[in-house]
């Protein structure tokens, strides 16, 4: 991208300002407006701030359905304890990933102990996923048609659900904070979305969010997104494997929180997909996908084990 005109094939440049990395340390630029990030004359990201009072009620409701859905999903997920970059707050992972369990090719994130006893509710919740994936895809397309194709991964497997434009989704809230890092994911770009919510229900807080701090920063570029005081939706597409980024510390004296969502295609998932396409697992009769049916089956096994433990405990008491 040598000139601003070169960006016009990718986005509407009349609605975006341009940020270029600074060669020498200067004060950090915090923005609360549409911005394009350029690196080495190449497009590395773009961010869009949209106030609630400029959105129609139907679209606002779609954003709210997404945030409510993710808060419900969090009831059946375990917080990400393996990400060493996390300092505080909650991070959950949803969607398909390469699993670490023996013989498990790929699986969806789920906590069997939390689901057991609530299987019907959980299955109904998963039925909503297609709607949520489709909505996220439309938001990505809405920012730029030029970048949209970089996200699509078409699979030819009857037993794996539609990955939409990304196979994996992470979401954070409860004063989430993490250290500066790059993501080694295989997506050409990652898609991010931030919504002001009541973390108990996921309902949008459309005015006066009671959260201080929590800006999204690019420390190597002396650049950041200024969330504080902004009543609206923030959307971003950026090269998360190239731009070092992190969420700053935030505080809240209420149940208000900033929900952060990111979509990407993990590199391990891509490796597994290539193996599947090449027939790597065909001779392994024990190989399986951890889909919803497998999770429900595991719930039954888990409940049987729990009942056996209780029975053994009662025998010891007698």
Note down, in words, how this protein is organized.
By secondary structure, this protein is α+β, with helices and mostly antiparallel strands. The chain has one domain: Double-stranded beta-helix. The protein contains 7 helices and 16 strands. It has helices at residues 57-74, 112-115, 119-127, 129-143, 145-148, 267-277, 292-317; strands at residues 17-19, 29-31, 35-39, 42-51, 86-98, 104-108, 168-178, 190-198, 212-213, 216-218, 223-225, 232-238, 246-247, 250-251, 256-264, 288-290. A 10-stranded mixed sheet has the order 1-3-4-12-8-15-7-5-6-16. Strands 2-11-10-13 form a 4-stranded mixed sheet, with no helix packed on it. The longest helix has 26 residues, at 292-317. The model is unreliable at 1-8 and 148-164 (pLDDT under 50).
Q: Compute the average pLDDT.
A: 82
CATH class division: Alpha Beta
* Widest beta sheet: strand line-up: 1-3-4-12-8-15-7-5-6-16
Judged by helices, strands and strand pairing, the structural class is alpha+beta
- How would a crystallographer describe the biggest sheet? 10 strands, mixed
Strand content: 25-35%
CATH topology: Double-stranded beta-helix
Along the chain, the helix and strand elements come as EEEEHEEHHHHEEEEEEEEEHEH
DSSP helical segment count:
7
> How many domains?
1
Helix content: 25-40%
Total strand segments = 16
The value of Rg in angstroms is 21 Å
Shape: globular
Q: Which stretches of 5+ consecutive residues score pLDDT under 50?
A: 1-8, 148-164
Distance from first to last alpha carbon: 78 Å
Based on the coordinates given, report the CATH architecture: 4-Layer Sandwich
Organism: Puccinia striiformis
InterPro entries: 2OG-FeII_Oxy_6
Protein name: Tet-like 2OG-Fe(II) oxygenase domain-containing protein
Domain Tet-like 2OG-Fe(II) oxygenase: 60-250
């Amino acid at each position: 991208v040598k000139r601003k005109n070169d960006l016009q094939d990718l986005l509407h440049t009349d609605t975006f300002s341009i940020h270029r990395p600074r060669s020498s340390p200067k004060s950090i630029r915090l923005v609360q407006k549409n911005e394009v990030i350029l690196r080495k004359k190449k497009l590395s990201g773009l961010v869009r701030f949209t106030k609630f009072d400029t959105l129609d009620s139907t679209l606002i409701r779609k954003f709210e359905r997404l945030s409510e859905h993710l808060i419900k999903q969090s009831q059946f997920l375990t917080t990400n304890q393996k990400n060493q970059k996390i300092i505080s707050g909650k991070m959950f992972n949803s969607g398909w990933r390469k699993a670490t369990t023996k013989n498990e090719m790929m699986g969806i994130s789920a906590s069997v102990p939390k689901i057991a006893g609530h299987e019907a509710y959980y299955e109904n919740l998963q039925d909503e996923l297609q709607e949520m994936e489709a909505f996220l895809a439309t938001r990505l397309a809405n920012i730029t048609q030029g970048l949209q194709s970089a996200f699509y991964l078409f699979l030819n497997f009857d037993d794996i659900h539609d990955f939409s434009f990304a196979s994996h989704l992470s979401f954070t809230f409860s004063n989430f904070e993490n250290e500066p890092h790059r993501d080694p994911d295989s997506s050409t770009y990652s898609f991010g979305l931030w919504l002001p919510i009541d973390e108990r229900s996921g309902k949008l807080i459309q005015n006066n969010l009671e959260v201080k701090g929590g800006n999204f920063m690019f420390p190597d570029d002396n650049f950041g997104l200024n969330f504080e005081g902004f009543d609206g939706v923030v959307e971003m597409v950026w090269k998360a494997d190239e731009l070092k980024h992190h969420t700053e510390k935030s505080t809240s004296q209420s149940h208000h929180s900033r929900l952060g969502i990111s979509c990407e295609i993990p590199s391990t998932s891509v490796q597994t997909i290539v193996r599947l396409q090449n027939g790597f697992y065909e001779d392994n009769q024990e190989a399986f996908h951890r889909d919803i049916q497998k999770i429900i089956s595991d719930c039954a096994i888990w409940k049987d084990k729990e009942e056996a433990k209780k029975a053994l405990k009662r025998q010891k008491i007698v």
